């Protein structure tokens, strides 16, 4: 069913909606309600309306030549066109087309789903291929060529309009609209990292960490399947930020009751702060080799390049993809060996632990890793 035309009613309050995306048809509306079922358009009627809707005013002879390339004469094609317009007016009850040497649509009381201004006004982007499943005889090669180009043009305008709408929604903090628009865009173009980041960020800023994490996993899967490669550094950092925030929230929700407050003036310490070797050994022994290697790389970055302690830098240091660090990074967080980042990146939790990790790295390897950071 067609959506109700927006602010396009004629003098009698009626309006005509042309649906040319998908199976072409028309439908009459009054006061926001359809006056009857949608009526299918024949291919030549649909093509005539699509040409005028997309290209504006057109010479009668050009339109007639596109629709009736095999006509015996220009006059015969023009007569066919005149009869076609007359029947359309009778069927729809709308003047529809201004006839003459130049043809154009009469917009009063008319809505067409090819007009981007209507998409943006209603914040609704209709889907479907222009004149879908149109079967043209072999003799209609000029119209077939026009239709191929017009489909590509409509698809590009639709894509650009929806992209810009998502950007505007993001800019003003309309998270729900951002999510809806990004989802619609990604159904057709699932390999856009920027749009995936926009979607994940909107969920994250709306406080829906579970859905943000789910979208982050979808992004990884889509990018790997569609592009055959791991997400870029900026996307990986965002994914880690979301997963870290969700784990922190889950950890906070599962925390036991708070301990009794300590006596005034008494400072408590943690094993990480005091450098308790037994605590370090117990935590580190439970790590996988990959997590241990990552911990040492982060410790080295803390000691020699603290501003570079991010997932992409660690990946470069260890000569692996950033995606491969997701599991070991989560291991370190779960073990309590990372402290929360103030903005981006991460730090080994405590200088004592950092020193403990560096002490286990051979001098030659330290020199090699320093060279990688340089």
TrEMBL record:
InterPro entries: AfsR-DnrI-RedD_regulator, BTAD, TPR-like_helical_dom_sf, WH-like_DNA-bd_sf
UniProt region (Disordered), positions on chain: 250-271
Residue span, Bacterial transcriptional activator domain: 112-243
Pfam families, per the entry: BTAD
Protein name per its UniProtKB record: Bacterial transcriptional activator domain-containing protein
Organism encoding this protein: Sphaerotilus microaerophilus
């Amino acid at each position: 069913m067609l959506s109700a035309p927006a602010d396009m009613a004629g003098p009698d309050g009626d309006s005509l909606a042309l649906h040319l995306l998908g199976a072409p048809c028309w439908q009459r509306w009054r006061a926001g309600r359809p006056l009857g079922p949608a009526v299918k358009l024949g291919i030549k009627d649909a093509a005539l309306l699509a040409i005028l809707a997309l290209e504006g005013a057109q010479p009668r002879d050009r339109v007639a030549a596109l629709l009736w390339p095999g006509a015996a004469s220009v006059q015969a094609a023009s007569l066919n066109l005149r009869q076609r317009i007359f029947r359309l007016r009778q069927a729809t009850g709308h003047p529809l087309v201004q006839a003459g040497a130049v043809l154009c649509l009469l917009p009063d009381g008319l809505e067409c789903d090819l007009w981007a201004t209507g998409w943006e006004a209603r914040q609704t982007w209709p889907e479907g291929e222009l004149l879908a499943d149109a079967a043209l005889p072999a003799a209609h090669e000029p119209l077939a060529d026009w239709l191929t180009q017009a489909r590509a043009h409509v698809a590009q305008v639709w894509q650009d309009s929806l992209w810009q709408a998502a950007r505007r929604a993001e800019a003003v903090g309309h998270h729900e609209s951002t999510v809806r628009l990004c989802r619609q865009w990604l159904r057709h173009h699932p390999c856009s990292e920027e749009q995936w980041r926009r979607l994940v960020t909107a969920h994250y800023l709306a406080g829906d960490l579970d859905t943000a994490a789910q979208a982050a996993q979808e992004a990884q899967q889509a990018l790997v399947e569609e592009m055959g490669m791991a997400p870029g550094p900026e996307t990986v950092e965002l994914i880690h930020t979301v997963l870290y925030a969700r784990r922190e929230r889950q950890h906070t929700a599962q925390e036991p009751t708070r301990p009794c407050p300590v006596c005034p003036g008494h400072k408590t310490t943690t094993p990480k702060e005091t450098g308790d070797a037994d605590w370090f050994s117990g935590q580190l022994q439970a790590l996988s080799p990959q997590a241990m290697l990552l911990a040492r790389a982060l410790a080295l970055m803390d000691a020699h390049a603290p501003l570079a302690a991010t997932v992409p830098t660690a990946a470069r240091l260890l000569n692996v993809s950033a995606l491969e660090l997701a599991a070991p990074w989560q291991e370190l967080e779960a073990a309590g060996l990372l402290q929360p980042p103030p903005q981006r990146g991460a730090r080994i939790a405590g200088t004592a632990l950092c020193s403990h990790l560096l002490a286990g790295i051979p001098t030659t390897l330290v020199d090699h890793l320093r060279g990688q950071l340089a």
